[in-house]
Specification:
Elements: E1 3-9, E2 16-22, E3 30-40, H1 44-48, E4 65-72, E5 85-88, H2 99-102, E6 126-130, E7 135-136, H3 143-161, E8 170-174, H4 180-189, E9 193-198, H5 204-210, E10 214-217, H6 224-230, E11 234-239, H7 244-248, E12 254-262, H8 274-278, E13 283-286, H9 292-305, E14 311-315, H10 319-328, E15 334-338
Parallel strand pairs: 8-9, 8-11, 9-10, 11-12, 12-13, 14-15
Antiparallel strand pairs: 1-2, 3-4, 3-6, 3-15, 4-5, 5-7
Helix pairs in contact: 3-4, 3-9
């Protein structure tokens, strides 16, 4: 039997080690994907550290997967073929029988299948994935670009397109890092009057290169809320920064019936009072990633608009350094592992 290499963590918060495993055959309604690239996401730390219930060690993390189908399980042949280019993101499949699934809201399935949590992820040369997790990758998109878009891309793209904002509205993106640098590009391409919010004046030029029409320095004398109101108030704020204090600072910058869309994860509570929301009819909501179809839409829109993630690409053998760089915030802006 042939083997493949995987980067596993044997114990919670333990070191990465490259191991060889026997190549498995896909079961019914599953395919085996030859991984070409896999992004390293901050959410991978939930699994590496054993911070979520049900994590079983050894763990193979990685939920930003791009590759080609190399084997088909029973019941998949009508929709997929060997050689098809596919991406698998945070949405790694759903149960299909819970109430949200029966209502068609698959991404909030309480039994959501996440690569690296429910099954082995993409820090490997091969992965078995259910067919409902597969998104087609356009020919014009490299695997190293498609991989981060299966999580970071779809989360920002979908968060914006499902907001209440419409072309011409003022939309702010809080943070221009791993998520935000994509969020600014998508916001501008969707026709929003785009505001980038970040710390320090030195990032203003970079924000403009990404497509922002305005830049707000959150460390300046004027508060973020006042700066947004001076521009007319934001119809939507996409909060990509994982900082509850920074997220809270944008609320009073929302226009009447404006919407705060939270995608940056911080365990600390938001400091928002009901009175900030009531009189102006403001909305605060969390936004989780997106389905395989949402990923496919994200990839297609990115090709159409020439949007790409900024990546640092390294081989699978350097997974430990890539993970360290991502966790330290030194990555500019998405670390991507390659296997071929």
């Amino acid at each position: 039997m042939s083997v493949y290499r995987a980067a596993q963590v044997a114990t919670a918060s333990g070191p990465f080690e490259i191991v060889e495993r026997d190549v498995p055959e896909p079961g019914p309604c599953h395919v085996r994907v030859a991984v070409e690239a896999c992004g390293v996401c901050h959410s991978d730390s939930f699994f590496v550290d054993g911070a979520l219930p049900g994590v079983r060690f050894p763990v193979v993390a990685g939920h930003e997967i791009a590759g080609r189908i190399e084997a088909l399980g029973e019941g998949t042949q009508n929709a997929w073929q060997v050689g098809d280019r596919v991406a698998v993101g945070w949405f790694g499949g759903s149960c299909g029988h819970c109430t949200p699934c029966r209502q068609g809201d698959f991404v909030v399935c309480p039994n959501l299948k996440v690569p690296g949590w429910t099954y082995d992820g993409g820090f490997a040369e091969s992965v078995i994935a259910p067919v409902d997790a597969l998104a087609r990758i356009p020919d014009a998109l490299a695997a190293t670009d498609a991989a981060p878009m299966a999580c970071a891309g779809v989360t920002t793209y979908n968060g914006l397109r499902r907001s209440s904002a419409r072309p011409g509205d003022l939309v702010a993106v809080l943070g221009i890092g791993g998520l935000g640098h994509l969020g600014v590009q998508y916001a501008a391409a969707m026709g929003f009057e785009t505001v980038a919010i970040a710390r320090g004046g030195a990032k203003a030029e970079f924000a403009k290169k990404l497509g922002a029409h305005h830049y707000v320095d959150s460390t300046a004398g004027t508060s973020v809320a006042d700066a947004l109101q001076a521009l007319g108030g934001a119809k939507a704020v996409l909060a990509t920064a994982a900082n509850s204090e920074a997220i809270t600072s944008t609320v009073d910058g929302l226009a009447p019936r404006g919407e705060l869309v939270v995608i940056g994860a911080d365990p600390e509570p938001l400091g928002i009072s009901p009175t900030q929301l009531l009189m102006s009819g403001r909305i605060v909501r969390g936004h989780p990633s997106g389905t395989a179809q949402d990923v496919q839409d994200t990839l297609a829109f990115s090709v159409l608009q020439g949007i790409r993630p900024m990546t640092e690409v390294v081989p699978l053998d350097e997974v430990a350094e890539a993970y360290r760089k991502m966790m330290s915030g030194a990555a500019r802006f998405r670390m991507v592992l390659t296997t071929r």
